[in-house]
Amino acid sequence: MRSMTLPLALPLVTFAVAAVIATHLQASTSSTGQAGLPQGGESRLSELWVEPEPTRDLYYGVGGRAMMPSPTARFTVLKMKKGGFSDGYDVRSPDGREWSAKLYPEARTEVVASRLLWGVGYHQPPIYTVEKWSAEGAPTEKDAQPVARFREKQPAALNGLVEDEPWSYTDNPFLGTRALHGLIVLQVMLTNSDLKPDNNMQYTLEKPLEGARRWWVARDLGQTFGRTGLLSAMRDDPDAFDRTRFILGVKDGMVEFEYFGPHVSLTKTLTTADVRWICQRLSRLTDTQWLDAFRAGGYPENTARRFIRRMKIKVAEGLVVQA
Fold this sequence. Notes:
By secondary structure, the chain is α+β, with helices and mostly antiparallel strands.
């Protein structure tokens, strides 16, 4: 079933700001140029972000249904992966495609976060949640494997998409652009405090897709939907996500967030305009897109609604923040 019919119980604050969204959009684009961007980095901007078509399918994502791994296939384990917060495998499917499979607790959150980034225009590789699957060479290969995030290593069907090298938020061609600042704000909203360069990847394509032959991708988004921190970080926790505040205040034009962890310095120069820019784009997602993003992660509807409600409160808060 492709959609849910029950209406979302939107917080009243969302409706209170609905009337000012159009005003903010007009003011942003008229005062700062292309898509609300300051000068600097616009010529290559499509390698990081493009204005998305409003009909993007946030259930299947950029790869569509055709690229989704078959849950009935028996995969072959090529390598066990340890050392990160979530264990995983490198696996091969019967059709010869190789995948990175990440297990709980980041399997679900990463897919949802990826869908939301793609929904507002940031490039993402094809990734999917597979609930139950079998694998030859796994420690418990006679049993169904636990839920996992599947990301194809070289998805040839997507214009020959190939990994190149990692990139850093502090060293890239987009410094000073609203799109890069908006990406960092979105990471704050998702409570992702794991923004190290190794979690980002440049990709090359054989022919342009989404406006570019090179993509700068923020990926490995599993440390989300909880609270930020280093040792105290939580993910996939609706209670922690509900308790975590978004904007604490504004000082000298810079927004202060409830955000902790090793990459907090990235948040220190984000302006109210940066926050409004990304929240304007999040506000354009439809209820179906929000629900589809969480269905893609395999969330039950009641849990999805809790996360969506909190995200929409943050969006409403960001739309009206002023210096």
